[in-house]
Design goal:
about 325 residues, 9 helices, four-stranded mixed sheet, Rossmann fold
Length: about 325
């Protein structure tokens, strides 16, 4: 991967919004508003910062309240657990996966502090993430009231280790892992915040936790009757497409369409995206620092370097989003 300069030129440009025809829709920051909050839903720790740090910084500057709602603890990441504990994968146990969970939650706290958000901005739902046995996807498609048991942590109810998980903080006890519990927590958050905007990973994302996070949030929106703006963001494009593109830290360049060496691979989301926000070089620098709070120690140095380079490639001169329909058929 080509090395890129990490020098930031302080070109302070006012945020603008441009439509698909290249027409400037807004050239000056919006005035302060009185909305209850903008919830940004991320399947794992780090997802919201990768794609929405600019949204957070600009909303905060307008006087809006931002909450980052993390659906899972990101604990079922064997390569990262092995790197953190310095154990071979076949020797890992539940306490090792919980150690990664604690580490990633602390990283989320530090990352949001870099972006100037208060500790109360972080909401940890504490549901299981994917792996060979499913996680969020298994819960979403499960039937009946029997709680799912995470084969990595052996947990079957919500938890967090650096602060209380949302359900415990709100209701005094943890929530089990069936589908309705996840849906009810997300719906309750939407009703409480009464937001004007909601962000979550797109249903077209190539990671099952990410696409399932979209379906949970979409279903909660249908359940609550929310009528505000609903935007999605992309972390993993289809197999065979390189995203983000261009690769590397490029704070003076916008996102370009996913790169495909094989011209038969097609990108399913529309390009250009329906919503772009532009961020200043100073905001891009804060985004980079926030992303670096989420560094993981992988089990192999090559994987470590590749993962870091991939994450830092989300630092561009703006951020891109796709408005989403609320249809159950999406």
């Amino acid at each position: 991967m080509k090395a890129h300069s990490r020098t930031f030129f302080l070109l302070f440009v006012l945020p603008v919004l441009i439509n698909n025809s290249g027409v400037v829709l807004a050239q000056t920051p919006l005035p302060p508003t009185r909305t209850s909050g903008i919830p940004i839903f991320g399947p794992h720790p780090d997802d919201a910062e990768l794609c929405c740090s600019g949204v957070m910084l600009q909303a905060k500057a307008r006087g809006e309240v931002v909450h980052v709602v993390i659906l899972t603890n990101g604990d079922a990441f064997t390569e990262a657990v092995a790197g953190l504990t310095r154990k071979p994968a076949d020797k890992l146990g539940a306490t090792d996966y919980l150690a990664l969970s604690r580490s990633r939650q602390l990283q989320s706290q530090r990352s949001l502090a870099v972006l100037g958000l208060k500790p109360s901005a972080l909401i940890l739902l504490g549901y299981p993430n994917g792996g060979v046995d499913g996680g969020l996807d298994a819960i979403y498609h499960g039937t009946g009231a029997v709680p799912f048991t995470n084969p990595f942590t052996q947990k079957n109810e919500t938890y967090a280790l650096v602060q209380q998980d949302y359900h415990t903080a709100k209701h005094g006890s943890a929530a089990p892992y069936p589908r309705d519990a996840v849906l009810d927590d997300i719906a309750e958050i939407i009703r409480t915040f009464k937001p004007r905007q909601i962000y979550v990973t797109t249903g077209a994302d190539g990671h099952p936790d990410h696409s399932t996070a979209f379906f949970f949030v979409r279903d909660a929106i249908l359940k609550t009757g929310y009528h505000g703006e609903f935007y999605t963001y992309l972390i993993h494009a289809e197999e065979g497409l390189q995203w983000p593109w261009p690769s590397g830290v490029t704070p003076n360049s916008p996102f370009e369409p996913p790169h495909a060496e094989n011209q038969q691979v097609r990108f399913t989301l529309p390009w250009p995206p329906d919503k772009r926000i532009f961020i200043t070089a100073a905001q891009a620098h804060l985004k980079l620092l926030a992303i670096r709070c989420h560094r993981l120690t992988m089990s192999h140095p090559s994987a470590d370097a590749a993962h870091e380079a991939y994450m830092e490639s989300f630092v561009k001169s703006g951020e891109v989003f796709w408005p989403s329909a609320r249809s159950n058929h999406e």
